[in-house]
Each structure stands twice: as structure tokens, then as C-alpha cells.
Amino acid sequence: MADILEYKCPCCGGMLEFNSGVQQMKCPYCDSEFSIEAMQEHDAALDAPAEDQLEWEVPKDTWSEEEAAGMKVYKCKSCGGEIVADETTGASKCPYCDNPVVMTGQFSGDLKPEFIIPFKYDKEAAKKALTEHFKGKKLLPKVFTDQHQIDEIKGVYVPVWLFDADASAEIRYKGRKVKRWSDNDYNYEQSDYYSIRRAGKMSFQLVPVDGSTKMDDNLMESIEPFDFKGAVPFQPAYMAGYLADKYDVDAEASVDRANERVRHSVEQAFRDTVKGFESVETEKSSIKLNNAKAKYAMYPVWLLNISWNGKTYPFAMNGQTGKFVGNLPMDKSLATGKFFLIAVILTIIFTVIGLCFGLI
Amino acid sequence: MIIVWIILACIISGIVVGIQWSELKSVSSQYTANDYVQKDSLHLTENKDKFLYTKTEKKERPKQTES
């Protein structure tokens, strides 16, 4: 059975959770608060090297070998209930007594994150942000706002890889400046062509790449940026009360995505230094990147799923900045109706203007 | 001429509805890493604009016939 960490309130014995409002551990039963530093003695287990957890307790005839291979079983210290989780789950709640638990083995030794950005926004803020997200969306079906069912709201720490990169680039462009003039007989256009060379360096810090296959990469990138100034050295106590996974996409597999974004930024920054031309064409581009060792961190995200009309709509909120994203459905009949209404009104207006000015 | 007004009206209407549709979409991948550029780290070691050649075109202006 794998080890789990639980934080018990010394006053009443209830399970402590990290409270984003006071940025400390708080007992939801007696309201006692404790600093993260006070929880450090609980984390002594992290100093021990990570042990292989290969003791499966899988009932026969229930799970196939393939299904069992990706699962781990933990025992809740509060109620003794068995918590079945997949191999990447790092923090969860006991399904029987709802106590928050942290799986120590997922974050110990080499697997220990260096940093964590604690949650600054709570669940109520996420619900409020969802309501705000609906406002002002003229093509959103009214029934969606009235009838939607929030399936679940989860506070999740997403494992991310943070990359630093030094870029050196040499880019060659062809630029064109145009002068136009006319005389009585002709219109003239003079095009002056230039060879434009730019070379230089740029540095990037902490470019995040989502290290979990469970978290949609586009959703994670949409809630950026995270402010790394809010990051603190990792302690499992911050995860109590939230869900968390360890990474299942390693740094080597993630670096290409970071470098792709860095390349685009370099191309854009260099292109912005070319001014005064009517048109610019890139002829040759050479960008070299040097990556420092990746850092491993946990970033806070509120995840919400809404079911409506047989489809699931995922939403996410940056747990640090409150940025909220999620695609909404469109009322097709409303959109079509609006299109024709606006087109008809404009046609009438243009026709009247045309008649007044003798254009028809 | 009325057909021109209808086409123009449809284009403008399409733009308006298109803008309202795009407000419903907020999930997309990030194209760049501009939020993570180290401040003042852009240093150009080469910055040259070299003139190559010029090309001039002329087009005859339509003449207005006197009635």
C-alpha cells in the first residue's frame, strides 16, 4: 500500500486544507489556522528516497491486467477506506470520508517539484467567474445560461515544466519602399528594394509546458500567464484540499513545444525591428536555442465541466490570476436571424443613400 | 447597383456576426512566448538595410473624352 500524507488539526483532529484566502493551512471544522512552516515536520517523509510501489491489491476477475497496471491503491488514514487512483495521481480526496490526502511517493526524491504557485482564488471565485464569463455573449443560447449543469469544480495542481532559453538569430529579409506620383499622362510607381539583415540575441525565462496528458494543452496555455513571483518552494501542505498529478510527460518530450513558442517570439521581435518598408519578405532565418535545465513546478488551475445538450464544455480558471476561459456554444438560429436582419437593414439604408445621391 | 449594396450589406453583416461568434471562443494555444521574454534581453549585433536596386513602372492615365 503506497504512503499518503494527511494533515490533522492539532486542536480538533479534523483534516487541514490549504486555504487560498488566508494562504495558510486552515481547519474547516474549528477554523484554526497554521502556517505552512508549521507543517514541515510532516514532510520528513519526503527526505526518504522514493520507494517502488509495486504492491497491487487488485481483486481477481474485476480488472484486466492492462487496467490494473495503471492503478495504485492507497489506504485512508482517517477511515481506512481504499483509495484507488491512477499511477500519476498525487493528491486527492478519500471517496468515503472526503478527507484530503497527498500521496508522498509521487512527490519525493527525484519526483519532487522545485516550486509551487499556491491557489489565490477559491471555489466560490471560480463559480462567480463562470457567471461573469457568460455576460455579454450575444450569441450564447439563453437556455445554456438557464439550464446548464455544472458537473464538477475541481481545484487541480497541474505539473508543468519551466524552460529557460537563450536564442541567437540571424535573419535576412527583402524589403520594398514605394514612391508614387502622377503627371498629366501617367501614374508612376517607383519600388526600391533592400536586403535587410538582423542578427542578435534574446533570452526567455520560465516558459511553461504542461507535463500532464490529463490536462488539455490548449486549455492550459489559454489561462497563461502565471506570475512566477508568486511561486514558493514546494511543500506538499499546499496541495491539501486540492487534486494533483505528477508529470507523465517528461522534460525531454516537452522542450520542443517551449522552443517552438520561443522561435515564433524571436521571429516576431526581429521582424518588429524592420521599419519603414511597404512590404517585407523573410528570405532566410537561422535561430539557435540553448536550453538550461528544466524546472519542475505545480501550477494552480480550477477546472469546471458543464454538460448541456449531450455535450461537455470544459472551462478553466487560472488559480493565481483568476483568468477564466472556455468555449461556449452558439445559438445557430439566432446567428442566422441576426445575419439576415442586419443585411436587410443595411441594404435598405444603402439603397436610400444611393437614391438620394443619384447613384442608382 | 442594388446587387452591390446587397453584397456589401452581407459582408458587413457577416463581419458583425463573426465578431460576436469569436467572443464565444476563448481557448487556443499560444503562438509565442512573449510573456516570458527576459526584460531588455533583445540585443541586435547586426542591423543593416542595404539598397539593392530600383524599379519604376508607369501606367497611362485614362483620358476623359470631350463630348
Provide the fold topology.
The complex is a heterodimer of chains A (360) and B (67).
Chain A (H helix, E strand, L loop, with lengths): L3 E2 L11 E3 L4 E3 L6 E2 L30 H5 L1 E5 L6 E5 L2 E5 L6 E4 L11 E2 L6 H12 L7 H6 L1 E34 L3 E25 L6 H6 L9 E2 L9 E3 L5 H21 L7 E13 L3 E14 L2 E8 L5 E2 L6 H25 L4
Parallel strand pairs in A: 9-15, 10-13
Antiparallel strand pairs in A: 1-8, 2-3, 3-4, 5-6, 7-8, 7-13, 9-12, 10-11, 10-14, 10-15, 15-16, 16-17
Chain B lengths: L1 H21 L20 E18 L7
What labels would you give this structure?
heterodimer; A: 360 residues; alpha+beta; 3 domains; twelve-stranded mixed β-sheet; three-stranded antiparallel β-sheet; 21% helix; B: 67 residues; 1 helix; flat
Give your account of this protein's structure.
The complex is a heterodimer of chains A (360) and B (67). Chain A is flat and about 95 Å long. Chain A contains six helices and 17 strands. Chain A has helices at residues 65-69, 123-134, 142-147, 217-222, 251-271, 332-356; strands spanning 4-5, 17-19, 24-26, 33-34, 71-75, 82-86, 89-93, 100-103, 115-116, 149-182, 186-210, 232-233, 243-245, 279-291, 295-308, 311-318, 324-325. Chain B has one helix spanning 2-22, and one strand spanning 43-60. Chain B has one helix and one strand, in the order αβ. Chain B is of the alpha+beta class. The mean pLDDT of chain B is 91. Chains A and B meet through strand 10, strand 11, helix 4, helix 5 and helix 6 of A and helix 1 and strand 1 of B.
